[in-house]
């Protein structure tokens, strides 16, 4: 169940990281509220995941899910460059998260 919580926490991290962009420095109310709520959800879910997962694996996987998801979202929605180097680095992060899952 820890990995389910961790995946949900990572998805919430994508929401709050994206919410930071939309909140424009916390000047827009709705994106700010969504950001704050998703931060609370993400950290709560991470805490639940860490009940059964080692902290090093859990934290690294949580940030990896957030980085990969936020980067892909930025490329798809904000038109950020999808260069071979960026995509290769995303692959490396994914490989690291999968490796941690297998090792842990």
UniProtKB/TrEMBL annotation:
GO cellular component: plasma membrane
Classification via Gene3D superfamilies: 1.10.3730.20
GO molecular function: transmembrane transporter activity
Membrane topology annotation: Multi-pass membrane protein
Principal localisation: membrane
Subcellular location: Cell membrane
Protein name (database record): Guanidinium exporter
